[in-house]
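hey all, quick one before standup. I had two proteins in the batch that finished overnight and I want to keep them in one place so we stop losing track of which output belongs to which input. First protein below, input sequence then structure tokens straight from the run.
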Amino acid sequence: MRRILLLTLVCLFSSVMVAEAQRTKKKRKKKKKAKTERRSDQPSSVEFSDQSAPLRFAPMPGTYTLSEAERKKRIKQREIFNKKQQKAHDKAMKDLAKAKRKEAKLKKKPQYSDPTYFGHKKKPKWRKPGKMKFCKDCGQVH
């Protein structure tokens, strides 16, 4: 008996909640409709898509335009700026190439190129098998 009563109460409560939600939904729709009616004087996106309408940000005819001399001056200034950037870039590339050549020259030394120098500046001394010592530089016994 308790189960049936509990089930009935749950169903009644959920139906009341659904009805309340539907009622508030209708109110929201009415408010939204009223807002859209007030904005009717503003153009919609459909009106902007019309190709015959003038562009908003296009320059108006008869407005100020650069004279030929001013245009040439701006182009010349841009060229000068680009030349400065180009010179700086060329200098950086030359410095980089010089550093790479210097590094390659160092790598040719036997300290780096000869495997017997492994971890040493000078070639390690090879002792007799009975007198070999542990090397701290390379971690080998020689």
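OK second protein, same deal, sequence then tokens:
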Amino acid sequence: MTQPETQIEAPSKTVVTVTKADLPLTCPRADDPTTGLHPRVAIPLKNPGDEASCRYCRTRYRLVE
């Protein structure tokens, strides 16, 4: 039996900067044209400089002041 190839995705180069006004943050965001492509997940950002990635689409989010 042939084993299917496992594809490893490279981390996304997309970095979305957000402010405290955008918190609490979810991916995809309500204004994102890709809404509905994957389940909505919370992105844990608390302090300026924090970064986190969506586990589905690998979009990176960075909290700025």
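Flagging for whoever picks this up: The first strand starts at residue 15 and ends at 18. The two ends are 54 Å apart (CA to CA).
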